Amino acid sequence: MAAPATGVLPQSIDETMAMLEAQDYLAGTALATVLFLALRMKRPLFLEGEAGVGKTEIAKVLARALDRPLIRLQCYEGLDVASAVYEWNYPAQMLEIRLSEAAGTVDRRRVESDIFSERFLIRRPVLQAISGESGRAPVFLIDELDRTDEAFEAFLLEVLSDFQVTIPELGTIRATEPPVVIITTNRTREIHDALKRRCLYHWVDYPKATQELEIIRRKVPGCNAALSREIIAYVQRLRTIDLFKNPGVAETIDWATALTELDRLALDPETIADTLGTLLKYQDDIARIDGAEGRKLLAEVKAELLAAG
């Protein structure tokens, strides 16, 4: 089925899959279904999974496919309202007060009303997301929510329930049209049930070998076909080993790109040892694979591909 025109919401699950595929994002039926429902029901989509499996990319793909702005709130420990929602431009407010004093203005109520107006308001991602224009509400990515604390989660409940933000000096600002909300978490801690209940949920897993091979074909078109098969077989086997951090799809793409830049046509122990830093990000994992276990793994991959023809 053909993808819907850019900027048009998909009208079926098949159209949703086609829309994602047109942006070189390969999604299974389960993901396409929950994404279609999130768009139709105007509910936030909560995506959970290991780092590097493509959760963040879904929001980027949606923004491109729907021709909408992407607003990203990158979460971190200590994130507060001033950084995430809004703050007042204090230097500009102070300057306005000084100018009013210099002009002899003594009406304190008028000065106060003026400095707490829209022109002194700095809109951070949350406020930007609910201030989108009707018919083109943004895609709002709340990335790695598990990095924040429970206090910020509690604040998000109002946003996700009613798509509104209350500013004491201005009142309540409501979205004329709810943004498309994508929330991601790497599950380093559990997110409260109250927030999850406001969302549709999907676990994003590592892709199967055939799917990941197609991803490499699309993302690294210069990669030799035989080398691509070896890369995918090797990475898929790596993920069965008890590593500190399994390589994600992003690392697979990086490794394929690196090997292509080095003009490699096949995997060998020396090449793997020299390029493991693009695939694995922890020294203990690299040391484990850069040895007898890694050579055994490569031999098994070669034998498996040879047997498969």
From TrEMBL:
User: What Gene3D superfamilies would the database entry show?
Assistant: P-loop containing nucleotide triphosphate hydrolases
- GO MF term (any one): ATP binding
Question: Which domain of life, per UniProt?
Answer: Bacteria
Instruction: Give the Pfam families listed for this entry.
Output: AAA_5 (PF07728)
Q: Where is the signal peptide?
A: none
Q: Where is the ATPase dynein-related AAA domain?
A: 44-199
Q: Which PANTHER family match?
A: MAGNESIUM-CHELATASE SUBUNIT CHLD, MOXR FAMILY PROTEIN
| Protein name in the entry | MoxR family ATPase
Lineage, opening ranks: Bacteria, Pseudomonadati, Pseudomonadota, Alphaproteobacteria, Hyphomicrobiales
